[in-house]
Queue: 2 jobs
Job 1
Amino acid sequence: MATQLEQAPNIKTELRNQISIMIGGQGGDGTLTVVNLLGRIFRDYGLNVYDARNVLSRIRGGHADGVIRASCDEIYSTGDEIDTLVAFDEEAVTLVLNDLAPDATIIFDSSKGPLAQGLHRAFTVYEAPLGNMAASALRRNIFKNTIAFAILGRILGFEDEVLVQVLKARYARRGQEALESNLKALNIGLDYATKSIHSSPYKLKRGTNSGKILSTGNEATAFGFLVGGGRFFVGYPITPATDIMEWLAPRLPKFGGVVKQAEDELAVINMGIGAAYAGARVMVATSGPGQSLMTEGVGHAGESEVPIVVVECQRVGPSTGEPTRNEQSDINHIVYGSHGEFPRLVVAPGTASECFKMSADALNLAEKYQLPVFILLDQALCQNSESVQPFDIKAVTIDRGKLLSEESISKIPLYKRYQYSEDGISPRSIPSLEGGQSQVTGNEHNEFGLVSVDKSNRLRMMSKRMKKVELAKSDLPRGNNFGPRDAKIGVIGIGSTYGPIIESMAQLQERGTKVRFHQLRTVFPLLEDDLKEFMQGLEGIFVVENNYQGQLARMIKSVTADNERIVNITKFDGTSFKPIEITNAISSVLSKSSDAASFKLGV
Amino acid sequence: MQSVQQAPARRIYTPSAPIWCPGCGDFGVLASLKKSLSDLGIASKDTVIVGGIGCSGSIHNNLECYGIHSLHGRLLPTAVGVKLANPKLTVIAAGGDGDGYAIGVGHFIHTLKRNPSIVYIVMQNGTYGLTKGQPSPTAALGYEGNKDIPFDAVQTALSIFSTTFIARGFSGNQTQLTELLKGALNHANSNKGLGFLEVLSPCVTYNDTYKQWREQVYNLDAEKGYDRTSRPAALTRTMQLLDEGKIPTGLIYEGTTPSLEANTLTQTEPIALQDITSPSNIPRYEELLKDFR
C-alpha cells in the first residue's frame, strides 16, 4: 500500500536516555491504544518499557489515562514526572498538572476550545482540534487518537515509516477498512506536524535491548501456571484478576486443560478443590471481594489437605472500593482470614519475571505440602507492563510431592489418606487408583478421613497439619536484598512497591543516604531469620506499603519484636508510590530525627 | 472389576455406620446406591461420592469408595471439578434439600444448565434434621411456622432447557428407587449429562411424612401414554398432578443436550492423570513467548 508521507521538518533535537508519556482523556478515547503502539516502537528501539493504565470501572467515559515510560536503562516504575502529555480534554491536563515536568510538552485537543491560559505554565503546548479533524476527514471522532499518535511520533523524532509499520502491525488483523482509516488519520497528524512543529525537545537514543518481552504480572502468572503443569483454572470475572483467565482461555485448552468460568467465587474455589482432589494442578484467581467469598473454601482446602493455588489481585477495598485502583490492603485477609486455623503459605512476587516463576513454584508448594498457597499480587503488578527477559521456561521444575501411583499404593498394607507422619505430610492418593480409596473431608477426621471428635486425634491432626507451615519455610522464597551492605537505612516492601523503592534508592543515594532494600517475597510464614539478618546493623527500617493500617509493618513487628527501628510509610489514595514520594518521606523522617512510627502520604 | 459391594482384600478403610435415626429415609437411599453400583459393576476405585452437609450429606462415609465431603451447599461445584478433571470417574453428588435448594441453590441452577455427566441425589425431607427441625426450602406451608411456598426442584429442573434426566423417587419404594438410580448412573456414565434424582426421604424424627407421601406419590413410569421425552408434556402433566395434590415420581423427563465435558474438554485423557512433566511441552511453551508483544 502506497502512503505518501511528507518529510518531517528539520528538528533541533536533544538526545534523551528516557522519556515518560501520558495519554489522557475519557474512557473510549483510545488512550490505551496509543500506549500500545508506543510500546511496540520502544521495544523495536531496544528500550526498556514500563507502562501503567489508569481507567475507571466503566466501559466508556470518565477520565482514563495511560502512562508509558521508556529508557535505555533499566526502569522499574512509571517514574516521577511526565515529559509529554497528550490530552483529549482539559481534565486530562488539570489532573496531572503537578506531575508534569516543568518543561513538558502537551498536545492538546482544542476541539472544544483552547487550553486555559493558566494551564500553560512553562510547557510547550501544541493545540490542534484533533477530534474535529478526525470527524471532518473520517467522520469519526475516535480517529483522533491516531492523529495524536502521529504528532507525538514527530515530537519524539520517530521516522514516519516506523509509525506506518506499527499501525499496519496493529490493524492488519482488523480489516482493510480499519487500517486505511488509521493510515489516513496518521497522515492528517503528520501534515499538522509538518506545518506546526518546528522544533522538538526530544530525540530518544536507541537502546541496546534485544529480545526482551513485555509482560504484565497477570500474564506472567497465567503463563507460569501453564508451564508449571497447571491444567485446571476456574474463575469469575473480577478486576483486576480477570486478565489471568482471559490469557489462559485460548491457550490452556490446547494443552488439554480447562478454563471454566463459574457462577460465583463460591463455585470457583469449590470446583477448584474438586479438580485438585481428583489430581489436576489447579489455580483460581480473584481480588478482594471474590476472596471474601472464597475464604470458607480456602479453609476447607487447608483442613482437607487439598493442594490449590489462589491468586489474590488486590485492589482498593473494602466492598466495591475502587476496582481499578492499586492497594495492598488484603494482606491481613490473606494471612489471617479464616474461621478456625489451617495451614497456608503466602508468596508475593514483585516483578513479572517473579510472577512467572513463583506461579509455577506455587504449584509445587501446594502439592508438596498439600495445602492452599496464595500468590499475593496488587493491581499495579497485575496490570502494569514491563520489559523483562523472556521467561526462563527450562528453569521450571515440577515436584508433585507425595502423590502416589497405583504401584506405590500396592506396597502400602492399609492406605490412610491422613496417615500421621513425621513431617505432617501424608501420602496422597487420587480417585481411580486401586487401594487408595479413602475419605477427604473438612470435618475433623481420623487417619482414614472418617469423622472424629476424639480429643487425642484432634490434637494429633491439628499438629500434623499446622506443622507443615514450619516445614515449608526452607522451600519458601527468601527476600531479595539490594543496596550496599554498609547502609544504615533499610527499606522493606512487597509486590509493586519493588519498582518505586529501587528507583528511590538511587535518589536517596544522590542525597547522600545509603539504603538497603529487602524485597519480601514470603508474606506467610514470615521468614524471621531472613528478616532479622537483613535488619542487623540498620539504624532505621522503613516499611513501605499501599494501605492505611500498615498491615505488613505490623506483621514484621510481630515476628521481629522490633518496634524501635521500624517506621511505616503508607499510601492509600489508590495510586502507586512514585519513587520521589518514598525518597521525600524517608528524607523528611531522617532529617527531623523524628520518632514518628508512621508516615501516611498525603494525610 | 471390583465393585463397591465385593471388595475382597481389606486394604482400605472400613466405612462408618450411618449416623441416621432408625427409620430414616436415607437408609433406603444408601441401600439403593450400594445395590445400583454393585449391579452395574461400577468399580469402587472409579467411584467418587461427593457429600454435602446435613444428615444425608454423610452418606459418602458409608460406602467403600472414594469420597469427598464438601462444604455446605458446595457439593455440586466440587463434583463438577472432579468430573472435569477426570471424566472417566463415576461421580455422585449426594446431599439434602437444605444443602442443595437453599444455601447451594445457585449452584443447583447452574449445574442443571451445564449438564455435567454426574449423578445428583437430593434426599428431600422438608426439614433441617441435623439442626433439629427448622423448615427447609421444601417444607410445607405451616411446618414449624413456615410461611414460604415450598420449592419444587423437579419443576425448576424441567424449566431449564438443557436438563437431560429428571427423576423423583421415594425411599418408601425401594424397587422404583433402585431402578431410577441405575438409570441416573447409566445416563451419567454414558456421558449424556446430569442424572438428577430427588428422593422423598422422610425425617422420622422432625418431619415424618411417610404416611402422607405414600398417599401422595404418583408413579409416572406406570402411566400409559406419558411422554417423558417431551418437556412441554412433562411440565403440563406434573403441574396437573401437583394441582391435584399428588407428587409425581418416576423418570419424569429424559432429553438430549451435549454434556459439560463434551463442551469443555479437548482431549479424552483425563487432566488429572496427564503427564505434566513431558519434555515435549517445552517447545510448545516457548512458542507462547511470542504472545508477549
Job 2
Amino acid sequence: MSATDTTPVTLPTAAPAVPPPAGRARRRGAKDPKQTTARHLRSNRTAYLMIAPMVILLAIFVIWPLGYAFYLSLFEISFYQDAKFVGLQFYTYVLTDPSFWHSLGVGLRYALMVVPTILVLALLLASFIKTLSKRAAAIMKTTIYVPAVVSSVLTSVIFLFIYQDEGVANWFVGLVHARPIAWLNTDATALPSIAVPGVWLGFGVSTLIMLAGILDIPESYYESALLDGANFRQRTWYITIPGLKNVLLYLLVTGFTLALQEFQLPLIMTGGGPVDATNTPNLYIFNSFRDATPFATSYSLTASLLLFLVLGAISLVIFRAVSSQKSADS
Amino acid sequence: MRHRRLTILAAAIVAASLGTAGCSSSGGAATNANGTVIVTFWQQKFEDYQQKWFKENVDKFNASQTKVKVNYLVVPADTWAQKLKAAQAAGTQPDVATTNYGGIGSGVASGQFAALDGLMPPAAFTDVKDNVKSFVTIKDKHYAYPMLVEPSTVLYYRTDLAKAAGLDPTNPPKTWDDLVTWATKLTAGKVKGMTIASVAADLGWSSWGLQYNACGRLPLSTDWSKAQATDPCYTKLFTLYQTLFQKGLMPTTPKVGYADASPYGQGEVAMMADGSWAIGQLKTSFPAMIAKTAVAPFPSIDGDPSRTTATLGGWSLTVDSKSKAKQQAADFISYLLAGDPATMAGFFKLSGFSKFTVRTSVDQALSTDKDATSDPFMKIVADKIVPNGKAEPSYPFDVSLAFGTAIESAMKGKADVATAQQSANTAIDRVIQQQHLAGTNAGS
C-alpha cells in the first residue's frame, strides 16, 4: 500500500484495542465499585507476588552490595587495621588518573572495532542464510555457532600462536616479502589483533539472533519489494534494517556493554600491553586490585563503581539514539 | 513427637557441623577432635620440585609430633593475590604463607605480619647470613624467616653459537656495548641474539639490578619523598633496552615472560637474561642445553664487574598477625627452614643449585656435598654475582611498574627516552602523593 492510498481498510476480525469501560460495564451488567477495586487490588497483589522473588534477589545480590560498595569506597580499606574515612578522595584519585581514562579509551576503541564489524558480518551472513535451502541453512547455522562454544581462553591461546613471529599471520605477510610484524607487541596493531578473535567469538550468536529477526519480517514485504524491482541493497536498507531495529538495539547495547568489559583476551594475549595499548577497563581494575596494598583495594573498588556509571551512561545513550518500538505487525 | 523430631534435627545439625568442619575452636586456634592445633600453610606455586619438597617435609613435620597439624595448600602464582585478599576479607587467611622479600615492608606497614622474635629461638636468626638479615628486619624486629636468595639477573649464553659467530666463549661481554655487539653477531636466521624482559610488569622488577648498575640507586629518593627517574644516568639503560628491541636483536613477540627460560632451552635465542632459577629449569627441562651453556654476571654499564647487576630476590615464610596459632605456626617454620641443615640442603640439591642458602649452617652442610662444590654454574653465581647483589626495594610495586612502563615505551617507540623518563617521574610522584609514601621507608 502506497503512502498516497487513502482507501479505508476494514479489519473485520480486529476488536478495538481498548474498549470504553462504560460499554463493557453495560454489556456485563453494572458492578459494585467495591468489587471492582477488590479485583484490581487482587490482580496487583498477584503481580507483586510474582515479581517479589526477583526484587528480593536483586535487593540482596545487587542493590545492597552496590550501596555497601559505595559506602566502602569512602574509606581506605585495610584488612588488618581500622578502615580510614577519606570521603571522596579515591574518586579524585581515579578521575585524575590518566591510566583510568586511557583504559576507558581502549575499551571504547575495542568496542567500536568489534561491535559494528559483528553487526555488519552478522547481517550479511544472516541474509545469506535466509536464501539457502533448509538443509544448507542448518549446516551453516551450526558452523557459525561453533566459535560461541569455544572457550575464550582457548581462543586467546590459538590466536597467540597465530600472531607469533613464525605464526600463520606472518606467513601471509611473508607472501608479499614483508618483514614479520609484531602483531601483539606493536602499539598500532595490538588492539586490532585482539579485536579479531573478539569478532570471531561474537559473530555466531549475533548472526543467529539476527537471522531469527529477519525470519520474523513478513515475507510479503520482500515479495512486494521484488515486484517493485528492489535490489538486494534496497531490500536490506528499506525492509530488513528497519524490521530489525529492536534486534539491532539489543545487539548494540549488549555488544557495547560486553566489549567494554572485555577482559580475558587482553589478559592472556598481551597482559594489557604493549605500553597499556590493550589495557581494557576491567583488566586495568583487575591489575590494580592485584597489588597488595590497602590503597589498591580501595582504588580498584572506586574504579569499578565509576566503570559501572560509564557503562550505564553508554547504554542510556544507545537507547536514546536508537529508540525501540513495537514490531511493525503488532 | 514434634519435640523429639526437633531434638534429632538439632543433634544432626551439630553432628554435621562437626563432621564437615572436622575441627573445632579451642583457645582461639582451630583444633581437630584430638586437640591437635591446625595450622594452615599456603605456598605460592613454583617449580614442580619445590611442591614435592614442601609436601614431603610438611608430611614429615605432621608425623614427627601430635600437637600441630599443618594443612598445606599450593596456590598458583597468578591467582595468589586475589585469593589471599579474598581470604583476608573473610578472615580465613592462612597462618603461614610464602612472602617475597619485596613484600615484607608493605606487609609490615599494613600490620599483616607477626614479629617472629619471641616465637622462634634467637639462634635461628643468628644462623642467617648478615647481608640477608636486613631483608626480613624492620625496626630491629624479624617479620619473616628467609628461605633462599636468587639473583634476578644472570647472563646465559650458548658457547657453540658464540664460537660459530667468531666470538670467544671464555670471554663473555663485559659492558652493555659489548652485549649489543654479541647480540648483533649472534642474531642469525631464526635465532635471535638474546632475550630479555620487554613488558612493563617484567621490566618493573627484572631491571632493578640494572637500575642500580646505571645510577647506583633506584629511581626514588631514599626517604621515598621524590621521584628521580629523570636522572641522566638512566638514559643509557633505556637506550640498551631500546636498541635490543628496535634492532630486532630479541624476539619481538615473546611467548613467555622473563622468568621462563623456554625460548633459550628451545634454541630460539643465543643469549638470555634471566634469574638464577633458570639453571634449575634448564637442568630439568632442557638437559641437552647444559653442555652448550655458560653463565656470567650480566654486563655492567662501564665494564666494572664490582657494580651491582642483580637484586637478590627470594622467598621467606611469614606468620599472619591475625593467626590464632602464632606459636604453632612459628614452630613449623622453625622445623622447616631453621631446623636440621640437611633439610634445606636437600632443597638446594633438588633445585640443581639454582638458588642459594641464607644460613651459614646450610652452607657448611653443602660444602661437603660434591655435587654442590663441583657445579660450575653455582660457583660463578655464588662468587661473582651474589656478593654484589642488593636487596629488592620494599616500596609499592606501582613505583617499579611506572619505571618499567617507561622503559617499555622507549623500547616500542611509543616515546623517546627523555619523554619516557619524564612520564616515569610524573607517575612515581603520583604514587608518592596518593599512597603517602614520603618518609615511610623503614629502611632509610
